[in-house]
Structures are given as structure tokens and as C-alpha cells.
Write a structure and sequence with these properties.
Radius of gyration: 15 Å
Shape: globular
Helix content: 25-40%
Number of strands: 4
Strand order of the largest sheet: 1-2-3-4
């Protein structure tokens, strides 16, 4: 509230999705469904300083705790929820502990990467931005 960017653009930092069919189809083409089994690793990756999780200093010691915290977030979304990310990252069961190098930005920043979680009752966005 009250941030200059929000006064000018209430959706900041996200770009507002188009409402026409063609634009909406293009928007959706940049989101990729992620199986529930990969979401904990995706959440852990989003909590690190870079997109190469195993190379994070102290990751081996912090891994179990980070995965517990990620599982707590995931527990908000019951079975049957769907999950999406804006990066294409390897097959049916992506391993987000591998290096991520590309994304289709949904924000006004040069680089963004995140999780869109959808249940019958809730939509969650967990995102990482790089404004450089």
C-alpha cells in the first residue's frame, strides 16, 4: 500500500494478462504445469539466492529444514490442486535442484520465476524477481 509503483499500476510488478482470446492463449503458453511431486523442490529453489540450488553455500545442512518449510506451504493446497511455473524445466517430473536458465517473464522485470498454485478455494503466487 502506498508504494509509488502500485499507485501507477495496481498489478505491479506483474504484467496484466490480456483479456482477448489470442492474447490469453499466448499468456497461457508461457505457463507449464508442474506435478505436485516437484513443487517442494521448486519452492526450495525459489527460497535460494540463485537458481542453482546444490551450489548454495550451506545447502546440504539446510536442505531438510527448507524442504519441511516448503512442504508446509504446499499443504495449503489439497490434492487435486494444480501447479504451474513459467519455465520449461525437464519432462514430466522436473528436478528444480538442477540449474534453471530460462523463464517466460510474467512481470515487468528482466527475469522472474515462480509458482502459481490453484485450488478450488485459493490461488497462490510465489515469485522471485531480478530487477537488474
Amino acid at each position: 500500500m502506498g508504494e509509488p509503483e502500485l499507485l501507477e499500476d495496481p498489478a505491479f510488478p506483474f504484467r496484466v494478462p490480456p483479456v482477448d482470446e489470442e492474447g490469453a492463449a499466448e499468456w497461457r503458453s508461457g505457463l507449464f504445469e508442474v506435478p505436485r511431486s516437484s513443487v517442494v523442490r521448486l519452492l526450495v529453489m525459489l527460497a535460494t539466492n540463485a537458481m542453482n540450488v546444490p551450489l548454495q553455500q550451506g545447502f546440504a545442512e539446510r536442505r531438510a529444514g527448507m524442504e519441511r518449510h516448503a512442504a508446509a506451504i504446499l499443504s495449503r493446497f489439497p490434492e487435486g490442486s494444480t501447479f504451474f511455473t513459467n519455465t520449461r524445466h525437464g519432462g514430466e517430473n522436473p528436478d528444480f535442484y538442477e540449474y534453471v536458465s530460462t523463464s517466460w517473464p510474467l512481470s515487468q522485470y528482466v527475469w522472474d520465476f515462480g509458482l502459481l498454485a490453484v485450488s478450488d478455494d485459493e490461488v497462490g503466487l510465489i515469485w522471485s524477481f531480478d530487477a537488474s
